[in-house]
Amino acid sequence: MFRRTRPLMLIGLALLLIIGVARMMPDREIRTLDRNTIDMRKVNVEPSQEPTSRLMHLNNDPSNNRLVSKLNHHSEVQIINHNEDDQSHYYEHEATVKFKTEISDERLAQINKEIDASKSDKLANLYMFRSNSKTTHQMLLYFRGLEEVEYAEPNFILLQNEAVVPNDTYYQEQYQWNLPVIETEKGWNISKGDKNVVIAVVDTGVDLDHPDLKHKLVEGYNAIDEKATPDDDNGHGTHVAGIIASETNNHEGVAGITWYNQIMPVKTLAKDGYGYTFDIAKGIVWATDHGADVINLSLGNYQPATVLKEAIQYAYDKGVVLIAASGNDNTNQPSYPAAFDQVLSVSAIGYSGERASFSNYGNYIDVVAPGVDIPSTYFQNQYAALSGTSMASPHVTGLAGLILSTNPTLSNKEVMDIIRSSSYDIGEVGKDEYFGEGLIDVNRALAAAKQK
C-alpha cells in the first residue's frame, strides 16, 4: 500500500464507503500509476483498522438505486428507457416551453386556462407549466401546435451522481489520499487560489453554517424556492463544496483543493437528491449572471434536454468554465450535462489508479479524478467520506478555480484545454473512453497556466 504522512482527524466523521462490483476489462495496452517508480503518484496515507464508535454510520446505496426505485414507482413520474439498463425520468403533468418572443400577461392567462394550469414559472422566454388535468403528452401536443412556441419538452429529472454504501470497517484516523495523488501540494506553491474567482456549486445547496465552509461562501440562490436560502437538506452539495474549498490550514476538518476561492451555493436539487431541468437551468443562469467563474454540476441523466443545453450554452458564451460528473451506472450511455461539448466531463478512479467500478465511461470523458472514499464536509456540521463521480468532478472544478486564480486572462476554452493537456496519461496510451486524457495534475496545470 501507500506510505504514511500526517493523518487527518475527522471529528464526528460519517463514513460512507463504496462497495464496487468488479468489471472485467478488455485486454489493451495499459499505463498505470506505478507506485514504486513514480513518487509524485504515491498516496502517503493508510487508514487505521481500529473501529471507533465516534463515527456515524449512514445507510446509503450505490448508484442511486433506492432513489431510482422510488422514482420508478412514483405515480407522477414517467420513465424513458434508453436501453435495457439506463433510464431517464420526467414529472407527469409538467412541460417546459420556450416561446420565440416574450408573451403578454393576457396571452399567458389564456394559455393557463386552456391547459388547466395550476402553476407556471418563468425564466426569460422559458416557462414551466403544470396542469391539473392534462398529461405531459397532451401538453406537448398542445404547445408544439402553437406558432409562437420554439420548443416544448418534459420537465426532466436529474439525479445527483453519488455512489455510496457503508463498509463494515471504520477508521479512527481518516485521510485525504485524493490530494497528493493529483499533485495538489506542489501546485499550491504556484497558487492557493484567489477570493475573486468564484466557484458555483449547483446542487442540493450548502450547509451555510458549517465551520469549514461558512467563511468561504458568497451570496447564493435557491432555484426551488426563491424565498428560501440555499441551505443544504441532503448533504451532497456540502460534500462537493468541501472538496473544492473547505477552509484549509485551520486545524479543523478537511483541506480543500483551493485555499482562497469562494463558493456560490445554488440549490437546484431537493432533499431526496434529484431536481428538474427547469430549476437546474435557472440555477446555472443565475450563477452566471451573478459572477460565477466556474460551475460544478455533480448531477445528470441520459436525456439531452434542450432547456439544459441552452442554459449550458448561455453560461459558456459568458465565459464560465463548466465541469460535470459523468455518472455512476458503469455504462457508456452518454450522460448530460457531462456529454455536452461545452462541458468538461469527469470520470472517477480509486486509489489503485483503476477506473472506479461504478464510473460511467465513453468517448465524451475528458479526464479522471479521485472519486472513491473522498473525505469532505457534510451537512449538519458533519464530515463524511463519499464515493461517486460527484466527488471526482469537484476536484477538477477546484483545479479550474486555481488555474483562473493563476492566470485570470484565460478563456474558459483555454482553461479546459490546459486541464486536458496537463493530465497524466493512464489506461490506454493517449485518450481513451475510460480515462479520457488522463488523471488531472494540479502542479502541471498551474505551471502551464502561469506560462500562458
Give structural notes.
The structure is a single chain. By secondary structure, this protein is of the alpha/beta class. It has 11 helices and 20 strands. Strands 11-12-10-14-16-17-18 form a 7-stranded parallel beta sheet, with helices on both faces. The two termini are 38 Å apart. 56% of the residues are buried. The N terminus is likely disordered. Belongs to the peptidase S8 family.
Ranges with pLDDT <50 over ≥5 residues?
1-62, 163-174
**CATH arch. level architecture of the largest domain:** 3-Layer(aba) Sandwich
* Oligomer type: single chain
Q: What's the number of domains?
A: 2
Largest β-sheet summary: 7 strands, parallel
* Strand content bin: 15-25%
| DSSP strand tally | 20
CATH domain class name of the largest domain = Alpha Beta
CATH-assigned fold name of the largest domain: Rossmann fold
Structural class: alpha/beta
Q: Compute the separation of the termini in Å.
A: 38 Å
| Strand order across the largest sheet | 11-12-10-14-16-17-18
Mean pLDDT: 83
Structure annotation, total helices: 11
